[in-house]
Design brief:
The chain is mainly β. Helices cover 5% and strands 57% of the residues.
């Protein structure tokens, strides 16, 4: 019986999707350039990408955007000729930003509300991995007030406090038969409220080269009063947990980014990310009822991993701008730890987008990001689920902004 809940709870770490459970969808212009933006000061999304660059933004402004994340995953169990697919479910990461300050002031302020972790994974209720997971819905919302100061005409620094609110709802089948002949089910849901920070430095050179360095701290998501809901035969109900506690490290990320003005209308961007996934060694759970299930410690043993992102922006005229990008991200998930919630592998990123500015103050930006996740054949060391996963991700996005 211990393995029943262990399999359920090891699913919890999927809090998003892009290099394991990290999502990089925090600005439509940057998404169009494969997520590169640390070495640029192009819009209000610098609140996330580099607080040090906020002080270089010439205009006050507000911006709101959303991305529609379509996740397509297929699975073929070892020894089977049947390919199973996840259900269509859209996860909508969003971003809201504001930047303000006196026109000639070296000090600027910003506020960001964004969703760096979040997603949805739904399988058929009777699929071959139903005892690992049948559905997962989650969302993590970060709120980041920010201050940025231009030390000199070429150097800016900035930092922001992060408040993180998370929600998760996870379901799976339990290998206990109900009176109607169906499998019992289990549901875990809960919320977390935690804190972190984001800081950066931005250096703008007169020769057209700019450099940005940022560090976003680890946030440890703590679920202290999660609900464990089991639909099992009545005679067994009182022996199952009703509450649980758990912690999940959302890893720190260090990024160095470069921007280069090839011409007055064309800019190149390059970001290199390093994510401290090695902090994620295990996932431990404390249950309120240990009659049938003991407290568990599930080994994860992730490794640090990086990503490289290259983008280009070309301003065609005063109203129209085009963008494109490519990147490569290395998975932190080691052999034996791939799950149906995180069917992760190394991935290729391809993106494109454009911006349209009908007036001097108002602008619309569109983006599209495609992630090709390499196929991966694995046997999970805990659940024993064995087979080949293949995933592709399609992410169209839209934002609107207003300068004042």
């Amino acid at each position: 019986m211990k393995k029943i809940l262990l399999g359920l709870l090891t699913a919890l770490p999927f809090w998003g999707f892009s290099q394991s459970f990290q999502v990089n969808l925090q600005g439509q212009k940057q998404i169009s350039m494969a997520g590169a933006g640390t070495g640029l000061a192009i819009d209000e999304a610098s609140v996330f990408f580099n607080p040090g660059a906020v002080s270089f933004l010439e205009e006050n402004g507000i911006q709101g955007g959303v991305s529609a994340l379509f996740l397509k995953t297929s699975f073929r169990e070892t020894g089977s000729n049947i390919t199973e697919h996840n259900k269509d479910k859209i996860a909508p990461p969003f971003q809201l930003y504001g930047v303000w300050g006196a026109p000639q002031s070296r000090l600027k302020f910003g506020l960001g509300v964004y969703t760096p972790f979040g997603g949805a994974m739904h399988w058929d209720e009777d699929w071959s991995g139903k005892y690992a997971v049948t559905s997962l819905d989650l969302q993590a919302i970060y709120v980041q007030p920010t201050a940025s100061y231009k030390i000199t005409d070429n150097i800016g620094i900035g930092a922001g406090l992060v408040y993180a609110h998370g929600k998760v709802d996870l379901r799976r089948a339990v290998p206990v038969t109900l009176n109607n002949g169906k499998s019992s089910t289990a549901q875990l849901k809960g919320t977390s409220n935690d804190f972190g920070w984001n800081a950066g430095i931005f250096i703008k050179d007169v020769y057209g080269l700019s450099i940005g360095i940022t560090h976003r701290s680890q946030v440890t998501a703590k679920l202290t009063d999660g609900d464990a809901i089991f639909v099992v035969p009545e005679v067994l109900g009182s022996s199952f947990p009703t509450k649980f506690k758990a912690e999940l490290p959302l890893p720190a990320t260090t990024t160095i980014g470069f921007g280069y003005n090839v011409s007055p209308s064309t800019t190149l961007a390059l970001d290199v990310n390093w994510v401290g996934w090695s902090k994620y060694k295990e996932l431990a759970f404390d249950y309120d009822n240990n009659s049938r299930i003991e407290d568990t410690k599930s080994p994860r043993n992730y490794k640090d991993a990086g990503a490289i992102r290259l983008g280009v922006q070309h301003q065609y005229n005063d109203k129209f701008t085009v963008r494109a990008g490519a990147g490569y991200a290395i998975t932190p998930v080691k052999e034996g730890y791939v799950t149906p919630e995180v069917p992760d592998a190394n991935r290729i990123l391809l993106s494109a987008g454009f911006g349209y500015r009908p007036t001097q103050r108002f602008a619309i930006d569109f983006s599209f990001l495609y992630e090709n996740v390499e196929s991966r054949s694995e046997t999970n060391i805990e659940t024993g689920l064995s087979g080949e996963f293949k995933t592709a991700v399609y992410i169209p996005g839209l934002s609107v902004s207003y300068k004042f």
